[in-house]
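Cross-check.
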Amino acid sequence: MINHPVRVYKSEENLPREEQLAHRIATVAADPVAVDADVADMVVNRIIDNAAVAVASLNRPPIVAARAQALAHAPSSGGNGATVFGIGERVSPEWAAWANGVAVRELDYHDTFLAAEYSHPGDNIPPLLAAAQHVGASGADLLRGIATGYEIQVDLVKAICLHEHKIDHVAHLGPSAAAGLGTLLGLDVETIFQAVGQGLHTTTATRQSRKGEISTWKAHAPAFAGKMAVEAVDRAMRGQTSPVPIYEGEDGVIAWMLDGPDARYEVPLPAKGEAKRAILDTYTKEHSAEYQAQAWIDLARKLHREHPEAADPANVSNVLIRTSHHTHYVIGSGANDPQKYSPTASRETLDHSIPYIFTVALQDGAWHHVDSYAPERAGRPDTVELWHKVTTEEDPEWTRRYHSLDIAEKAFGGSVEITLADGTVIRDEIAVADAHPLGARPFAREQYIAKFRALAGGIIDDAEIERFLAAVQNLEQLGAGELDALNVAAADGVIDLGAAPKGLF
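Predicted model, tokenized:
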């Protein structure tokens, strides 16, 4: 890996194109390096993971609406179109990226990477798969594109913080998806460079989508970035240019949206000929909740078994969770969002409330992607009483470990003290989720398949489940035009297209 210095340049300094970050990204994307076997294996795992969480959300309102929008846009003339997840009907690729991206993101249940910024790198897959289907690409083409999408997003996330400046994390997704599309389509460096710039320029937005009363837009935001990436590539292929330099310009993203004119970053990118392996640094979710909640669900399940008395609010004086800066201020009591303690809050808000999540997992000893968020579950009196006794605070050591670049000590958990009414104090801690590569039960192919089977049950016919799993595990051998096999069709009667809300299209 090469660490590339990035700073703001005045216009008269005339930063050469080849030294601009967007151009360096494009150069990596255009490098025809082979995909390592372990990377290819993980790509298959993440396609399975995305399919699992998309299946589970097929009839949730945001997906129903996004699907209806997509179905109003027939395949464009440049290719065969792409399939809408769950039904297989073909639409224009940018709209397939939109509908499928919302389905993947809705339950907050797929993969994650956390460093200077936050990300869900699996959000790269829907636009890449849509474009691949549209142009009749092969499984090997898709594999290379996904490896690039993950690489660029992870490298940007390692180096450039967005949330500190209240910019949403999908600002790294527009460029990474555009780069991945460039690899998939075999585009030249100049075309990818222009697409990356447009991908960034059109996907910068504020983090209000993840603050206060969190709305359904949370699921749409990465899908929008993927759709913008597809459109940016289309424009770049037609010779249209982007703002230059998009990152380093004196009126660019860094100068006015991020650290300002004195900013200094070092962005790691693979050297020429170096394999793209960043997907191996990422991790998926066992539970449908914000990633920082994963370890806390696992710890709460453990405490449920070992200290069942702590599940009764009558026995508990208070619960104090000590954790990282991010966990405390974004999904903990440090956010100062009263909605995080409201039994009538939206699912999206409860998904970002550690006090709620820890309470329910402690009482139930389990976590379910539907039942744990049900209004009747959130409103249960004993749950509300215990929930309101849970607070968080930042612990500098857990913050340090959260930001550590050493994978062996990087942590997303913390410690908890449950003070009982009789004065007894229960103490425990957890560093990483059980499913994390360094956790108690790391996810491998077996667990990805089990997650897919569990979420697809009752939604996808058994024969279709087996067909999909066979196809995706044969990804590298899928020929040109065979990528429709990666779509999963819902069983008859599961989706009622006539029930979709009406809009403009």
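The chain is about 40% helix and 10% strand. The chain has a mean pLDDT of 96. Passed to J.P. for a second look.
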